[in-house]
Write a structure and sequence with these properties.
- The complex is a heterodimer of chains A (about 100) and B (about 325).
- In chain A, a hairpin with a 2-residue loop joins strand 3 and strand 4 (about 45).
- By secondary structure, chain A is of the alpha+beta class.
- The two termini of chain A are about 15 Å apart.
- Chain A contains two helices and six strands, in the order βαββββαβ.
- Helix content of chain A is about 25%, strand content about 40%.
- In chain B, helix 3 (about 40-65) crosses helix 10 and helix 4 (about 65-90) runs antiparallel to helix 11.
- In chain B, about 80% of the residues lie in helices and about 0% in strands.
- Chain B is globular, with a radius of gyration of 19 Å.
- Chain B contains 15 helices and no strands.
- Classes of the chains: A alpha+beta (about 100), B mainly alpha (about 325).
- The interface of A and B includes residues 43, 44 and 50 of A.
Chain lengths: ~100, ~325
């Protein structure tokens, strides 16, 4: 038996990691995961495994699953409006099915 | 004429030394599209060990140093860090067709100090047997922090002028952020441990012997990064490249002049003068960029990080023989 929910994915540089964590805490989310990574985008390539001279410029991916679509929308909008105008980052939402409703 | 001949003699000899050879090797590998990778964890470990070694060495030396000898070189380092950024403000940041914030952030990085260049100079001075007071590397934060603070304050003043936003000068926060960065944290810890503990055995048996070898790997990483960042730099105004090419020489000679003044006044060693010159010539590549990125978000990192890492650092490293030749000339008599 699954329940509908929304997954908010945020890819930002480590520099913004504390900012995103503060936003998530303020929004009252119950939990999230952070994954280190690399890749290529508008700001060039970032090595996934090799040395990144400035560690704060390496990317991380946040994944947050929320039951409330409104909270997810507000978080995404705040990030885009207040933080990702000058800094690099990508935010997207996706519908997901969760098994244990009470965890979100 | 002698100076020119000296420089080219020293230059070709230095290119074969491990430090510069590994830097050029890293650039060559990246240019050829090699898949060679130094793992990130190894790179970060190396930075910590090198900076701990620099801090420990300086701390142990300060224990026995006459603190009065430190005052003038420390003041010179502070003045250089501030002055370099102010010069960048009235030259680079005033150029047409360029956003002033980008110019100020670039000047900030060039006023700040490169830990890798500092370590490389120490190794080269040891190889040349040109003595310096072991506490000189501890001048790093005296130049680094004022440069970053000046750049950030100038950028905020400029922002206030252009869009009338509330002026928020949180100098204490900038200093704390700089000191919390990995490079300066490790240096500060080493310095304190060298001063108050007795780390001499572990210094002699672990940090000192590892220093040169680990530095060669760091140079390889810096070379690869320099080449990778060059692509980004090509997309921004060419004046950043021109600045990055000239600034290390101008700043290095300013550093040499102030160091020489300290030599005349309080007997600052010739090796110390060279080390101060290279610190002034160098531009921050590890710890400065994130501080500026956080404090001047409107500046384009492709401009300032590209200028510093892909041109500033290699040029500063390659200019070391110039200061050695200059020292030979000035201190020979």
């Amino acid at each position: 038996m699954t329940h509908p929910a929304v997954k908010l994915t945020i890819v930002v540089e480590r520099l913004l990691e504390p900012v995103v964590e503060r936003l998530l805490a303020a929004a009252g989310v119950k939990g999230y995961s952070i994954f280190p990574g690399g890749g290529r985008g508008a700001h060039g390539a970032r090595p996934a495994h090799g040395a990144q001279v400035v560690r704060e410029f390496a990317i991380v991916k946040f994944e947050v699953v929320l039951r409330d679509r409104g909270t997810a929308d507000r978080l995404a909008e705040t990030l885009i409006r207040d933080h990702l105008r000058d800094q690099s980052g990508i935010v997207w939402l996706a519908p997901v099915e969760v098994l244990r409703e009470s965890k979100f | 004429m002698d100076l020119v001949a000296d420089f080219f003699g020293a230059f070709s000899a230095q290119l074969q030394q491990p430090t510069l050879a590994f830097l050029l090797g890293g650039m060559g590998l990246a240019a050829l599209g090699s898949r060679l990778e130094i793992p990130d964890a190894v790179y970060r470990f190396i930075v910590v060990v090198l900076l701990l070694k620099i801090g420990l060495g300086a701390g142990i030396a300060i224990r026995e140093a006459d603190l009065l000898d430190l005052v003038l070189p420390a003041a010179a380092a502070f003045a250089l860090g501030t002055l370099i950024v102010l010069i960048g403000r009235v030259t680079l940041a005033r150029l047409p067709g360029l956003r002033p914030e980008d110019g100020m952030a670039t000047a900030g990085l060039f006023g700040a100090v490169s830990a890798s260049t500092l370590a490389a100079t120490m190794v080269i001075l040891d190889a040349e047997e040109l003595a310096y007071e072991a506490w000189v590397p501890a001048l790093y934060p005296f130049m680094d922090i004022p440069a970053l603070v000046t750049a950030i304050v100038l950028a905020q003043l400029h922002r206030q002028k252009s869009d009338d936003a509330a002026l928020r000068l949180r100098i204490g926060a900038i200093v704390a952020d700089s000191l919390r960065g990995s490079a300066l944290s490790a240096l500060a810890l080493g310095l304190v441990l060298g001063l108050v503990a007795r780390p001499d055995p572990v210094f002699a048996s672990f940090y000192e012997p590892l220093f040169r070898g680990l530095l060669s790997i760091l140079m390889l990483v810096m070379g690869m990064e320099a080449y990778a960042r060059l692509a980004e730099l090509r997309r921004v105004a060419h004046v950043f490249a021109a600045y990055a090419l000239m600034a290390p020489f101008v700043h290095g000679l300013m550093g040499f002049a102030l160091g020489y003044a300290a030599h005349l006044a309080t007997g600052f060693s010739p090796g110390g003068v060279v080390l101060l010159a290279v610190m002034a010539a160098s531009s921050s590549d590890i710890s400065g960029p994130p501080t500026l990125r956080a404090a001047i978000p409107s500046a384009n990192p492709a401009a300032y990080v590209g200028a510093s890492t892909s041109i500033g650092t290699p040029v500063a490293l390659l200019s070391i023989p110039l200061y050695l030749a200059l020292a030979d000339l000035v201190f020979a008599n």
